[in-house]
Design brief:
Number of helices: 6
Structural class: alpha/beta
Helix content: 25-40%
Shape: globular
Strand order of the largest sheet: 4-2-3-5-7
Number of domains: 1
Number of strands: 7
Strand content: 5-15%
Order of helices and strands: EEEHEEHEHHEHH
Length: 179
């Protein structure tokens, strides 16, 4: 699995890597006054940051979003197939993004400098932009009784998330502004 058509929102000071179902609407609303340029190329001369999210929670909310968007119920699909995704170059432009895609698909070879955990995003936005449009209104009606079944498919994403959370590149308020 891989993600080809990355979106970076670039300003004078930074690049933000958009990852679907990781508060990207909130981030875009917060930085819209900076008139970011959208590009698919990483500018290595600028600090690049992104938001990461706990993978099982992200998957459940992404699945709920995709099902609602297509007017389907969970009983109408093969859940196992939602873990395998391929994004053709024009899929994002059409809005056909699989919101259950692994975060790894976005992060591999993106050369991100800083990661912000979703639970720290409101504080990050306030500290860096003096405002926050953190909406955090994602809810899902789907409850998976056996999260171990989901973890079986998401184990690589979970491992990567945990490594990032415990790395020196995961932003915490004590680290202050990064750009």
């Amino acid at each position: 699995m891989f993600f080809q058509n990355l979106e970076f929102y670039e300003t004078e000071k930074f690049q933000y890597l958009l990852i679907h179902k990781n508060a990207c609407t909130s981030v875009r609303k917060t930085i819209e006054d900076l008139n970011p340029k959208i590009t698919n190329k990483r500018n290595l001369n600028k600090v690049c940051w992104t938001v990461i999210r706990e993978p099982v929670e992200r998957y459940i909310h992404g699945l709920g979003y995709d099902l609602a968007r297509h007017g389907l119920d969970i009983d109408e699909i093969d859940v196992e197939k939602t873990f395998c995704s391929y994004h053709e170059p024009s899929s994002m432009a059409r809005g056909d993004v699989n919101h259950t895609s692994s975060q790894m698909c976005y992060l591999i070879n993106a050369n991100v400098n800083w990661y912000v955990d979703l639970k720290d995003l409101n504080l990050f936005l306030k500290q860096h932009f003096n405002k926050s449009n953190f909406l955090n209104k994602s809810t899902s009606k789907y409850v998976f009784e056996d999260k171990k079944e989901l973890e079986k498919y998401l184990h690589l994403d979970i491992e990567m998330y945990n490594r990032i959370r415990h790395s020196p590149y995961c932003w915490e308020w004590q680290k202050g502004k990064i750009f």
